[in-house]
Amino acid sequence: MSRLTVGNIFKVAVAVFFFPFLPLLVLMIGVRRKNWKVTLEGAVYIALLIGAFAVPSDSAFFITAGLIGLGTIPVSAIRSYLLRDLWLHRRVRGRQHQVMTPHPATTQPAQPAQSTQPAHYAPPSGAPTEGPTQGLSQALVWTATLAKQNKNRLPTDSYISVLETCQTLDAVIDTETRQPMGDPQFEYELTATVREYLPAVLRNYLAIPPGMVDTRQVNGRTPNEELVEQLQLLSRQAETLHSSRHRHTSAELSNMGNFLRERFRNNQGGPLDLGKK
User: What residue segments make up the domains of the chain, in order of their start?
Assistant: First the structure.
């Protein structure tokens, strides 16, 4: 996708022609995209520029103020370039978007030959049909790789949230692989979170053009806001699965302790009863 369009050329030409007003361009970008941080930044540049020219020529601060005022122009030019995704849109061919995805031949988890779900358990339509942990680690690696390859497209906090969620889920998968719970509902929730929910959130966000991630949708929310909320929900789900899995492990340990105490309670200080008479 290229930014070399007639509309973008016209915008850049106008910006160059009216270069003394570049601080105003930053403000307009923020207002147009409803980004309060950029709007505030542009307002500060304009205030500095106006304030610099408002200083009397006989003032001791006239030269300093003038340098500050003139300095806002190149700074605004640099910021306008860094914010180019918000005002210089890419030319999109059809519905394809520039999203880097891992090569499926190397990272996409293989599909098993048959399902290992219990016969009495029927997950909702479209639910994963693999066993409780078969291929989940590979699916998690695929998701983490997708996030890393598109690190520059993701907000910093969201990128960190994805990796932390992957780490939490990986710990659950590791424990479940070594000692399965045998709980169909838990297996379904874990599999769906790893194979469907988390990858879908990433793919849906990365399919949006960079220039539209701060644009409010019909529901009044921006894609960035949606991404943050959905990742928070998935993070809580991962923590819930992690807690549930380790509560089960603790319960098993307690049950074994109860059994041993009951089994050997009457043998304290005496010979070990091996069932022989």
Answer: 6-87, 104-264
